């Protein structure tokens, strides 16, 4: 028996076996959780359905998180099948490719609205419909990144969206906390996923993370999956309104000694 035996929840955002959402789902499943899966569009169905079936999912549903009626339908189905939920994983983010290159100052209004709507406001929508069917002690976890608090090359409007996501999480933790529901964000270091490869210069981000990390390595999917398991489980029963970092310490270091040496040589 695992620590999630008897626990039921839903994951928004699994897209393939290389993504962070999958890494979390795998850990939850291996610890005994029952998981409902959603997918965005027919193209994603072909990728998500085999993963969901392999994990014995009773619910595999389409859901565009920008459409409130579709989010509502997911939770109504969860209530019908499971009764109450114990965890929700929000692993949804999107920005137009044109807004992830060049200068942030050139971000379009349309691009801004899309990025913040999909990546941040959707957490509000998800929480609104999850709240009535979550058990006391339940957990909602949203995925974020260091670009929310630091300017990261080519992350641009997604950084603003993640900042909005984190701020929303803090307000939601107060609202839902009255019912004993915890809301947190998990900030992962860069992981080579389908989504991350759309960010310009991502390979350089991976190398820079290793250089800056106090333990001189980058996170693995397993590392992040375990952190997600902690937040979704009763192990984090006293944690809410927090951004938990799983980035091998990159967020805590201004620069490594090696970076300082490179910078000083460049300036000279």
Features:
268 residues, seven-stranded parallel β-sheet, globular, alpha/beta
Please summarize what this structure is.
The protein is of the alpha/beta class and 268 residues long.
What this model shows, in words?
The chain is an alpha/beta fold and 268 residues long. It has helices at residues 20-30, 42-54, 68-82, 109-130, 156-177, 202-212, 221-232, 257-267, and strands at 8-12, 34-39, 60-62, 85-90, 134-144, 182-188, 243-246. The radius of gyration is 18 Å and the shape is globular.
List the topology elements.
Layout (H helix, E strand, L loop, with lengths): L7 E5 L7 H11 L3 E6 L2 H13 L5 E3 L5 H15 L2 E6 L18 H22 L3 E11 L11 H22 L4 E7 L13 H11 L8 H12 L10 E4 L10 H11 L1
Parallel strand pairs: 1-2, 1-4, 2-3, 4-5, 5-6, 6-7
Low-pLDDT regions = none
- Please trace the helix and strand order, writing H or E for each element: EHEHEHEHEHEHHEH
Beta content: 15-25%
Average residue pLDDT:
91
Q: Which strand order spans the largest sheet, edge to edge or round the barrel? A: 3-2-1-4-5-6-7
Q: Gap between N and C termini, in Å?
A: 60 Å
Q: How many DSSP E strands? A: 7
Q: Helicity, in percent?
A: 40-55%
| Anisotropy-based shape | globular
Profile the largest sheet: 7 strands, parallel
Secondary structural class: alpha/beta
> Total number of helical segments?
8
Rg over CA atoms: 18 Å
